[in-house]
Amino acid sequence: MSENNKDDFRIKTRKWLEKNCPMSMRGKTDDIKELFWGGENTSFTSEDQKKWFEAMYHKGWIAPQWEQKYGGGGLSILENKILLQEMSRLKCKQPLISFGISMLGPALLKFGNENQKDKYLNEITNGKIRWAQGYSEPNAGSDLAGLQCKAEDKGDHYLINGSKIWTSYGDMGDWIFCLVRTDFEVKKQMGISFLLIDMKSEGVMTRAIKLISGKSPFTETFFDNVKVPKENLVGELNKGWTIAKYLLTHERQMIGGMGGDDEKFNPREIALESFDLKDGILPNPILRNELSEYEMDDKIFSMTIERAIDEAKAGNESGAASSLFKYYGTELNQQRMELIMSLTGSSELIMDSEKNKNGYIAAKFLRSKGNTIEGGTSEVQLNIISKNILGLPTK
Amino acid sequence: MALVLNEEQQLLKESVKDFLDNKAPVSALRKLRDENISDYDDTLWSEMIEMGLTSLTINEEFGGLEFGYVALGQVLEQTGRNLSVSPMISTVLMSTTFINVLGNVFQKNKYLPEIAKGNIKICLAHQETSHFNIKDINTELKGDGDSYVLNGEKHFVIDAGISDYIIVLAKFETESNYIGVILRSNSDGIKINISRLLDDRKVGDITFKNVKIEKESVIEINDFKLLERVFDISSIGLSCEMLGVSLEAFDKTLAYLKDRQQFGVTIGTFQALQHRAAKMFIELELCKSVVIKGLKAIDSDLSNLNEIASLAKAKLGRTIKLITNEAIQMHGGIGMTDDIDIGFYIKRARVLQQTLGDYNYHLTRYAEISGY
Question: What is the number of domains present in chain A?
Fold first, then answer.
C-alpha cells in the first residue's frame, strides 16, 4: 500500500467514523459489560448502541479483516491497523464484544469446512450468536490436555458427558465451542476433538462461580447426556489439540493486549491527582521510581507490539511469539493495578460508596490477579518459550 | 516509520557481523590485553575505514555515505557482540555526532571528510565527576572574541590517548552558557593521563591549563536542546552496543545450558533455569524494540528523542546487568575463570552502563521529562 493510498484510506475512515459513531458511543468504557455482546440473551442498551453496531456491521467492520462473504470488511493488516488507530483517536467504543471474533473465528477460518464458515462466521458478525468457550475442567487447568469431558460416537450423533469450568459469561452464551475427549486409549493430546454445542440442548446447565472480587464473570458448565449432531465437529476427529493450541495463541494475544487499550486507568494521571508536586517532582521518591519504571516497561512493551506488527508486515518471522505478549502484558497489567492501589491509598479500599463506584478499582485490582492464570499461566508461557523458542531440552 | 531494517541495512548488518566474527572476536581483545602494546588494532581499524564504517552518519556533501544512524546502530550491535575494540564510540558515534549536530559549515567541511576517510580520530571530553551529568561542567572558556583560553579538568575521556583531536565541552561567560571547543590533542597546556578500565580499554584524565584557542575552533551551542540531542543520539548508539553485548552473553549462556551435564542430565532441563532464561529472552525482545525505535527516531527527527533515548539507556542498563549477572551464575565456577570469555562481557557491560549515564540517571531524567 503506497503512502498516498494509506493517507487516503485514513482520511476516508476518519470521516466515516466521525459521521457514523454517535457521541454516546465514544469515550471511556468503565465496564465492558456495558458494551454490546450480541446473542439471543442480550439486547441493545440504547438506540445509539444499536445504530453504531448496525453502521459498523454494514461497513463490514465488525470483523474488519474477514472476507466480505462472512460479514467482514476484507481489510489488509495495514488498513485494519489504520482503522484501529482512527477508532482509538475518536475513542470509539467497540461495536461488538465477541469471543466469536477473537477466538472461534480464527479457528473456523483455518480448520472449519465451508458450511461451518458460512453459517457460524455470519452469525458472529451479525451479532446473532454469542459464543462461550469450553476448555478448562476442574481437573484440567494448566494440564489442559488431560481433559475428561467425553463425546461418545452414537452413530448419527455424539453423546456428551462431563463438565467445563471458567466459561466466561457461560450463562449468557448461546453456543459453546468445546474440547472433548473422543479417545481414551491414546496419548492424551491425540484423543481430543473440537465440537460446537448449542447451549439450549437438553442436558446443558451452567452455574455461576463467585470470585474474590465478589463478581461472577465465569460459570461452570455441565453436560449430562447432551446430543450433538456429527456435523458440529470442526476439523478431523481426534485432531482437536492442534486447533486448541492455535486458538490459545489468539486468546493469549487478547489477554496480553488487555493492558494496551485506551480504557485503562493511567497511573500517571492518578499520581498527579493524588499528590501535589514539589518543585515539579512527586514528593515520594519510591513511588516516583515505581511509576517511571512501570512507564518504561509499558512504553517499551507497546513498541514491541508495534515492532511485531511491522515484522509481520515485512514477512519476517518474529521471535516475539504470543507467549511473550501473554506473559509480559499480564504481568505488566498486574503491576499497573498494584501501582494504582498504592497511588490511591485508602480511598479505593471503600467498597460501598457511590464516590468510587463501589470499589470499582479494587475489583479491577482483584480481577487482574487472574490475568496471569487464565489462558495459560505465566509459568506455562515460560515453559513454552523455553521449549519452543529457546530449544531448551525437556529431558 | 516501520520498526524493521530495510534491505540495505540488513545487508550491512550481516557483512559487518561476518567481518567482525573473523577479524575482531573476543580473542582479539584478549590479545590486546595480554600483549598490552597498543590500545587498539590499527590494521582492523584500517579495514573498518575501508568498509566505510567511519562515514555512515556523515552526509554526502561532506564525503560520507549518509546511511544514517539505523545503519551505524547495526555496526555497534556487532561490535558489542564481539567486544571488538576500535575508536567507533569516541570518533564515529560521539564526536561525529557532536559535529553533525552542532558544528558550523566550516567545521563540518574541515573535520567530517577527514573522519570519513579515516585520517583523524577525535575523542569527546565532557564528564568531570564520577557520574555523567551534562549540567555538571566547570571547565571554562574565556576570551574576547578573537582568541580564547581554556582551563579545566575532564575525566573518563574514551580513547583520549589515541585521538588526534579533542572536543571539549565547557562553560562560556555565564553558568548556563555551554560551548564546545575542538583542538589538537598535542596543543600546549594539555596533559593527558591514561588509565586502564575494568574492560581493558583505555580512558584519559585531561587537564587544560591556559590552552590557547582560536576562534575557528569554537563550536557554538545556541540551544541547550541541541547539546542534549548529541548525548541522546550517543546514548542510543551505546544502547546498540549494549544490546549486542547482552544478546551474545545470552546466546553463550543458552549454549552452555544445552551442553553442561550435572546429576546425569543437561542442566537446561531444570525449570529453575528455564524460566530465568525465558524471562531474559523476553527482556531482550523488549530491548530490541526500544533500540530500533531510538535509531529510527534519530533518522526521522522525532521530537521526543530525549524521552526515547532515556528509555533506551535505562532499559538496556537494567537488562545488560540482569543478563551478564545470570550469565556468570548459570556458567557456575567456570564463569568465574579467565579461561572462558563470559567474564569479558560483564566487564564491558559495567563500563557501558556508566558511560553517558546509568539506569538511575536515565530513569530519573525520564521522570523529569514526563513532568513528575
Answer: 3
